[in-house]
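User: Let's play a game. I give you a shape written as tokens, and you guess the letters that built it. Ready? Here's round one.
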């Protein structure tokens, strides 16, 4: 059967780059040529080896048009715009969604819809080709999301807050290609040749190559997590009995030490006032995963460490007088608890209750320490093939880059050989001081390659905010983190056409993902419009 298909990014609501050559790509196994129409222009493109590429001369701003392809079948892509397109790359602070910033910026988020600000979420299909081969990754077939209604909450927060300001200033469609991946190292964004030049061997890449190799790797990682979590349940555990005469602890604090497994925490509190309507439970930052109950009813859960615990629930869960809050905490790395400096309270329509202070703590089950393997997006070249080469013919206006955390002390995970990234990337010289092992050279190579793919476009990169991993019990930002910050700050000295914006200082410094992305987005918008 003959089938005509466009690459996944050519979908309803797409934004194409104005004033640059426009390329439309797809496949067709039943004809020798296809006819592609965009706005009032038609291009006939040959089909070679089942693939076609239609090239259009640059066009100016368009707010609503259609893209059609006539081949073995006819395809219509609706609601296409032409404006400015930005590629948002890096790791979790670029990926972090608007939904995680509602507590600080609800009024700003809900103030206005922006239907001509759109986002394409490039969730990568990770595959490394054989050495010297073409990318074998595929793009997700999903429509672009508009910044209106609930759709706004899925946007990159940095991208949304920046794009809306650019739109308000320029009144042209804005497209965001979000291909950032939480935990990604800079090595994941680098091509084979650049990796070889910075010390990665082909032997390290060879075991990741070939159809299905990375999927098998990811499946092993996921299964390891599933198996460990499955053991983290004691079938006959009685929380009431365990907590009745349990030890008392003062929270917040990292109170679980030399223990992996499951710990229960309990806090009694009094309600004196109205419980009607929506209530909010703020449990700061917990290490690692939690399920939280009030009076035996689940009110929230989070499967890993970093998201702030912001749990909205119906006030019918509460009772006048005494109430019981319980948190079942899964601790993976022999250290855990409630991170200091974050907010811990419960808020009803009539009162706000401080939850810090005395709690009870009881053990459910002890396990061996969880030993994760690194996520695929930490491995060399993975995102180069999946998130860059797959869109190399999409014209963009600028590259926005927010990365470095995973190369500055390993807060997001482990590396391929289970050695912390800080140990790989930093070593001692004769003075005993820590010195970077080439992060600036890796940035130079990364952006040079990006510009080979996307043209000589400007780059806006973020100087990371200060951060201290709460499990280290340090009082100062690590020197390795400071070195990365310094290299980011001075990037314009060794990379052309780059602007640097500063991530807002987090409060507390133990917050890896500061919620104040509105201010950072405004800085991105300002820098963007200065180019």
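Assistant: Ready! My guess for every position:
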């Amino acid at each position: 059967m003959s089938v005509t298909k466009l690459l996944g990014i050519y979908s309803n609501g797409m934004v194409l780059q104005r004033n640059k050559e426009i390329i439309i790509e797809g496949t067709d196994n039943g004809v020798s040529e296809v006819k592609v129409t965009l706005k009032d222009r038609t291009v006939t493109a040959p089909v070679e080896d089942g693939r076609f590429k239609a090239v259009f001369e640059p066009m100016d701003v368009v707010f609503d048009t259609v893209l059609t392809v006539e081949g073995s079948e006819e395809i219509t892509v609706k609601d296409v715009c032409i404006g400015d397109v930005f590629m948002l790359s890096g790791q979790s602070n670029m990926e972090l969604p608007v939904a995680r910033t509602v507590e600080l910026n609800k009024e700003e988020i809900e103030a206005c819809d922006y239907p001509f600000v759109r986002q394409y979420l490039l969730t990568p299909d990770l595959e490394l080709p054989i050495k010297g081969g073409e990318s074998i990754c595929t793009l997700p077939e999903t429509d672009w999301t508009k910044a209106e209604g609930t759709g706004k909450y899925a946007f990159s927060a940095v991208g949304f807050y920046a794009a809306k300001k650019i739109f308000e200033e320029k009144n042209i469609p804005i497209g965001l290609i979000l291909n950032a991946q939480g935990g990604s190292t800079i090595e994941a964004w680098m091509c084979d040749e650049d990796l070889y030049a910075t010390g990665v061997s082909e032997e390290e890449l060879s075991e990741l190559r070939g159809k299905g190799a990375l999927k098998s790797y990811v499946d092993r990682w996921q299964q390891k997590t599933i198996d460990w979590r499955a053991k983290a349940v004691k079938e006959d555990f009685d929380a009431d009995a365990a907590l009745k005469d349990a030890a008392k602890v003062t929270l917040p604090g990292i109170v679980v030490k030399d223990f992996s497994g499951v710990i229960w925490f309990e806090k009694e509190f009094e309600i004196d006032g109205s419980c009607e309507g929506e209530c909010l439970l703020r449990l700061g930052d917990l290490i690692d995963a939690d399920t939280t109950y009030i009076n035996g009813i689940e009110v929230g859960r989070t499967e890993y460490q970093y998201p702030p615990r912001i749990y909205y629930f119906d006030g019918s869960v509460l009772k006048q007088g005494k109430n019981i809050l319980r948190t079942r905490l899964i601790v993976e790395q022999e250290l855990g608890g409630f991170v200091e400096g974050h907010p811990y309270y419960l808020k009803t329509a009539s009162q706000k209750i401080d939850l810090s202070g005395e709690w009870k703590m009881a053990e459910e089950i002890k396990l061996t320490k969880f030993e994760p393997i690194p996520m695929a997006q930490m491995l060399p070249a993975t995102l180069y093939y999946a998130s860059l080469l797959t869109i190399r013919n999409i014209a963009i206006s600028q590259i926005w880059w927010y990365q470095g955390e995973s190369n500055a002390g390993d807060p997001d995970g482990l590396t391929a050989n289970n050695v912390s990234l800080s140990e790989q990337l930093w070593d001692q010289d004769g003075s005993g001081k820590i010195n970077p092992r080439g992060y600036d050279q890796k940035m130079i190579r990364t952006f040079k390659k990006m510009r080979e793919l996307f043209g000589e476009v400007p780059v806006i990169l973020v100087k990371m905010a200060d951060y201290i991993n709460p499990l280290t019990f340090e009082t100062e930002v690590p020197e390795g983190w400071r070195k990365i910050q310094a290299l980011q700050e001075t990037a314009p000295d060794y990379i052309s056409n780059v602007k640097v914006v500063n991530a807002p200082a987090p409060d507390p410094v133990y917050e890896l993902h500061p919620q104040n992305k509105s201010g950072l987005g405004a800085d991105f918008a300002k820098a963007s419009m200065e180019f």
